[in-house]
Amino acid sequence: MNSSTPLKPNIIQWISILSIGGTLGYFGYILLRNYFLQSSEGFTGSDGYIKYLIGWLIILGSIVLVAFLNYRLVFLKLFYHENLSLKNLYWVWISGFSVLIFSILQIRTEFFPDYADENIFITFLLISFIVLYGYIADYFRTKRLQILLLKEKTDAELSVLKAQINPHFLFNALNTIYNEAHREENEHTATLIEKLSGILRFSVEESQHEYTSVEREIKFIEQYLTLQQARLPERENIRIKTNIFYDEEPAQIAPFLIIPFLENAFQYGISMDKDCFIDIDLNIENQQVHLKVSNTILPNNTSTKGMGTGIKNVQKRLDLQYRNNYKLLINNELSIFKIDLQIDLRSSEIDQRITNFDQRNHA
Fold it and tell me: What percent of the chain has pLDDT over 90?
């Protein structure tokens, strides 16, 4: 469906709107009728009736507030936590909270035995509402994340498509240059052209997918590092150290997630006439990614503090695609910019829901 197509309400939507409107109108009619026909029994005049309504509004507002605070301060902190013990702690909290509510109700009814079963029932209703509120609020939050992720993905695909000016022509041109380099027996140039061709092909193909294999991502990174080091002259003031380890355990990762940190290091950390260094350590083991990058911050780049827009963009992608399954530390003290990134590649429940949602919408 085209996003520019206006959504027209169908018959079910109209029935829903009329049902809600009719129900609210009916309740309003009852309230107004009782307000004007108030008898001497029960409430004492209109003031007593208004106080009664205000009391119920305060009670309902307090219940909703407690449910909201429980969702924001407890549910989001514990329910999706990667530590199973902390995740189970949420239900320990709910159990304890139930006892607290029941105790308050018991105090209110002065521990009269005839009210115990009623207090248990009210406690059950309140806890059920609080728990249900958490699930419903998280459902809508997940939906918003899904829509935002799809929009980000669509925008990224559009940007890539705009940059893909006849990529097949570009690949054919690179192959022609590659063959010419071979014919001239210039193996170094031929190798660099082959690396560049691999980078471009990876960019074109993988931009269309939500995830790629770790093996392909590492190959892309190695090709990028080869080209970057080849363009730099061999000088004593430039020190580049790279270490990449992969245990070859099959895993999937979002493409182009690591490369912005490397691009940032080469963009802001290299100088032709000043002492500078780049240290890159990438370890992928047991489906756990650990990337450490450190580089010098050159004086003419202090205004940027060593961090470009690429890192800011990748932080948004990490929040969208890995949520609680990553840790990113950024440090730029003492003229050295450091990145420490850890990602758990094991699919979490929310990752799977987002992937399934994406697949359904592109089916």
Answer: 14
